[in-house]
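[job 0412] stage=complex_fold ligand=flavin mononucleotide status=START
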Amino acid sequence: MGCIYETIIRPMLFKMEPEQAHDRGRTALMALSKVPGLCSLLRACNQVREDNPVKLFGLEFPNRVGLAAGMDKDGEFARAIEALGFGHAEVGTVTPQGQPGNPRPRLFRYPEQRALINRMGFNNKGSEAMLQCLSKDYPKGKRKMPVGVNIGKAKATPLDHAVDDYVASFRTLADQADYFTINISSPNTPGLRELQTKSFLRDLLTTLRDENRSYAKKLGHQPHPLLLKIAPDLTYAEIDQIVEVLLDLDYNGIIATNTTIARPRGFTSSETGGMSGGTDIHKRSNDVIDFIHRSTEGKLPIIGVGGIDSVESAGEKMDAGASMVQIYTGWIYRGPFFAKVLAQALKSHGEDWI
Ligand SMILES: Cc1cc2nc3c(=O)[nH]c(=O)nc-3n(C[C@H](O)[C@H](O)[C@H](O)COP(=O)(O)O)c2cc1C
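[job 0412] stage=complex_fold status=DONE, emitting structure tokens
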């Protein structure tokens, strides 16, 4: 099937303008999501279950491969993602109100590097729209895999009010999220990455932790797992400071990494935005994962993401210290059943990484 995708379907899609092809893919996934019977059939064929579910942050994941944030920005086709063999989906990044994102063109393809550059700018329909989609089409309690909600700051919100955006989306989506990811690392929202600096970060993460605790207390259940997603472009000293705050505040994990603003040597395109896919980001995110894993002695669970385009590269993320992986660009290049292939391969090596 991967062969048909790479020889027939991908060349057809790649003849289209990149965002148009992306939109076609999304439309197909949304259509699939609306046919529960077909999803169940596909799930029966594709879902990979580890012999024992992967237990992380108090949740159970059927396998170790998730869809990274940005593909399903509005939580519109998580059911289809489950049917294609993924073990979790991260939806978003969502902001409290919808916003159009940056002007097009804002997505660029580099097949030679198996990479993309995007400067989408958090185009999304807003947290209320996501709540409607998830509660109607893929409600909590009826899922076979966890859904994480990735929350961010709107373009128009000044940095010193950023926390209000995160809290607003948290409140709207708390009933439908299995975990939350706080995204402070996308390069396409002006100022967002400044939230990674220690002074902003401690305040932001403390407020969200307290919000989470009082939400859980009110409803009499466990707080949601909270994760932070970081950029690959940080120095080790900056990563150290972030990790210290996460451990201090009892955060449940870290996602390493988002896209990079760096470019491979000899790369000639001058498009701005975050680069994903390819060997450079793969290596850089591995280094970040390895650094965090060693400096915390494995105490902070890591979801590894960046440049996975083969079973080997997924294995390298796990070897570096990740507990699970996510994919995005590799999925575009390798096709809809790539998650299943990875999940099966990681399953057969499972005992190496528990
Ligand atoms: C088109 C596109 C849009 C993205 N949008 C988001 C986003 O909204 N939020 C986020 O946290 N990451 C976003 N990402 C980053 C991915 O989740 C992932 O961290 C990154 O692409 C590295 O993984 P990859 O090399 O497997 O693509 C986006 C990536 C791409 C390619």
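The CA atoms of residues 163 and 207 lie 8 Å apart.
[job 0412] exit 0
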